[in-house]
Specification:
about 200 residues, mainly alpha, single chain, about 0% strand
């Protein structure tokens, strides 16, 4: 009996590799979802950036929708991630919780966001930076996420020194930039996943 023959059912056998390849091909078949979500984020960014000014309630609701959408995306990524699922899930739950708080009382949410805007920028910047390093092995343009994360961290410290009235407009600009960067990232990811599907 040859020692190189693969035993059925053992990890690493050709059957297991074929099954893993089929699962990966199935997940990669949904590349168009990333494309649709990315287009949605870009449209949202364009709409948000059209506002010269908006009511306090509108800003609270817009930011709430963005937090919930980002949270759902993170939970979806946690479901298909190979490792560090808990990290994706934690950030997903944090984003959804932040969105629910925004919906519960948009006016107070706006005041709270304006007061802690620097902290929110910092949280998102840190997450984008962590995600860039997590995707480094599988994403050729991981550095784009790293640059965006570092820019958001710098913006966090700059925003901390702004006056309350300036923060109203800053929140709108922030929401638009966040949506735009998220959309571009998702569209790029869609074509990367499509390429992976074709390679499998």
């Amino acid at each position: 009996m040859s020692g190189t023959a693969a035993s059925p059912g053992l990890p690493g056998t050709s059957d297991d590799l074929q099954a893993a390849r089929e699962v990966a091909r199935g997940v990669a078949g949904f590349w168009w979802l990333w494309l649709i979500v990315g287009i949605f984020w870009i449209i949202a960014a364009l709409v948000i950036l059209q506002f010269d000014q908006a009511s306090v309630k509108t800003i609270g609701i817009i930011v709430g929708i963005m937090f919930v959408s980002a949270g759902i995306q993170q939970l979806a990524l946690a479901a298909i991630a190979d490792s560090m699922r808990w990290l994706w899930a934690i950030f997903g739950l944090l984003f959804i919780a932040a969105g629910i708080v925004c919906f519960a009382n948009p006016e107070d949410t706006f005041a709270g966001l304006a007061d802690i805007l620097g902290f929110l920028f910092l949280m998102i910047g840190v997450w984008w930076t962590i995600r860039a390093f997590l995707e480094r092995e599988v994403n050729q343009i991981w550095w784009l996420g790293l640059i965006a994360g570092l820019m958001m961290i710098v913006l966090a410290f700059w925003t901390g020194g702004q006056f309350f009235l300036d923060k109203a407009y800053t929140l709108l600009v922030f929401a638009g930039i966040w949506a735009m960067l998220q959309g571009v990232t998702d569209i790029v990811r869609a074509f990367q996943v499509r390429g992976l599907r074709d390679a499998l």
